[in-house]
Amino acid sequence: MMAAITAKQNGHQVILLEKMKSLGRKLLITGKGRCNITSSLGMEEFIKNTPGNGRFLYSCYQNYTNQDIIQFLKEQGLKVKEERGNRIFPITDKSQDVLNCFTKKLKELDVEIRYNTQVTKILVEQEENSSKVIGVETNYGKIEADKIVLATGGKSYPLTGSTGDGYQLAKELGHTITEIKPSLVPMESYDKGICKQLQGLSLRNVEIKLVDTELKKEIYKDFGEMLFTHFGISGPTVLSSSAHLVRYKQIDEKMKNQAIHLIIDLKPALSEEKLDERIQRDFLEVKNKQFKNSLDKLLPQKIIPVIVQRSGINSNKLVNEVTKEERKKLVKLLKNFVIKIKSFRPIEEAIITSGGISIKEINPKTMQSKKVRGLYFAGEIIDVDSYTGGFNLQIAYSTGYTAGLLEK
Predict the structure, then answer these.
(1) Domains along the chain with CATH numbers
(2) What is the torsional sign of CA 201, 207, 211, 216?
(3) How many CB atoms lie within 10 A of CB 362?
(4) Closest to 122 in 3D by CA, of 170, 167, 165, 79
(5) pLDDT (tens digit per residue) in 93-139
(6) pLDDT digit string (tens) for 215-249?
(7) Longest Cα–Cα distance in the chain
(8) Contact present, 289 and 341 (Cβ < 8 Å)
(9) Which of 127, 261, 286, 293 has its CA 20 to 30 A from that of 327?
């Protein structure tokens, strides 16, 4: 949509081909239906928040910034607000309103949109040392074009239309597709019983660490919110950690060996010493209660049975009989609650796709293919991906805008 708007504003005749019966279905599900439009951070921070080839996006981010998308929405009559973590949302909390801004602008510019139209092949003409685009074949016949923007998305959430067919179209023209993997995806755990017991529990303000226990190496660290599910773990910090894990060497083998641990610090604001003091104070107040009934002030109700079980302390033991060693063990457990990572959930459940058209084959200043003249790329089809927080949508606007300029 952004590429079509930009191309039309620059005087081109534009046809937007959409294989679904409506535009922007993926946009509608972003931010849990609220649409996390972008981030308020500086554009240099966007690169830092893009573990998947962030530097490649430097020119695109200069061409079209977070302020530009906010201004665009404002011009269409939609104001935005900022929430914690620098996240920008529409004031209405409805992703539909963001989509309406795009469709309104397309209508205003009189961009021709053809729905239920699937491109089956990009047509090219051979030149001396290269080739150039001349049109596309669709389920409704051929359409001539001297410039084509391929913006078909990745492979995640196929029900929205992103089924990975753009990769095949590019591959047929000689483009390299780097390995397609799920990113920003929930993870399954070997501790399935515990995760199922904790299903639905959302932990806020916790610190998580992903550790390779074979190499005793910290892979990723984050602070914020996470969620237990029937299969394992999810939530913002977990999704961001998956973007790192997907790029980690021999990750499938490491997970198979149960070497990847997610370590949760349930009380990151307190040192072990301070936490011990806090527990002692709590214990003093309930000294005649059983241990299993003594942690109500410290922890969410749902996790208490699991902590009691993992602590190794007899659940029926009176609090005033808990030894110093047992208490120290409890402190260690609260600061290092381990979940063993088994695998990523399927790509269909991933928010975005890692991998795609190799950035080595795209001009970063124009988004034009280095292999085929007149072919441009935008969005998730390219091998770039970011953390959660509005960064991936900004990639879509910035690359879409840059591709839409259709520079030679």
Answers:
(1) 2-180+352-404 (3.50.50.60), 187-266+338-347 (no CATH), 280-336 (1.10.8)
(2) negative
(3) 24
(4) 170
(5) 999 999 999 999 999 999 999 999 999 999 999 988 889 999 999 99
(6) 999 999 999 999 999 999 999 999 999 998 998 99
(7) 89
(8) no
(9) 261
Distance between CA atoms of residues 225 and 207, nearest Å: 8
- Residue linked to tokens 């975005």: 352
Residue 117 corresponds to which tokens in the numbers above?
């139209």
- Token pair, residue 212, equals 């390779």
Contact present, 189 and 203 (Cβ < 8 Å)? no
Closest by Cα among 359, 398, 405, 366 to 69: 398
φ, ψ at 102 (rounded to 5°): -70, -45
Q: How many helices (H) and strands (E) does the chain have?
A: 14, 19
Using CA atoms, how far apart are residues 210 and 205, in angstroms rounded to an integer? 16
Is 223 strand, coil or helix?
A: strand
For 160-178, give one letter per residue: b (16+ CB within 10 A) or e.
ebbbbbbbebbeebebebb
pTM for the model = 0.89
Report d(CA 83, CA 215) in Å as an integer.
38
Radius of gyration of the chain (CA): 25
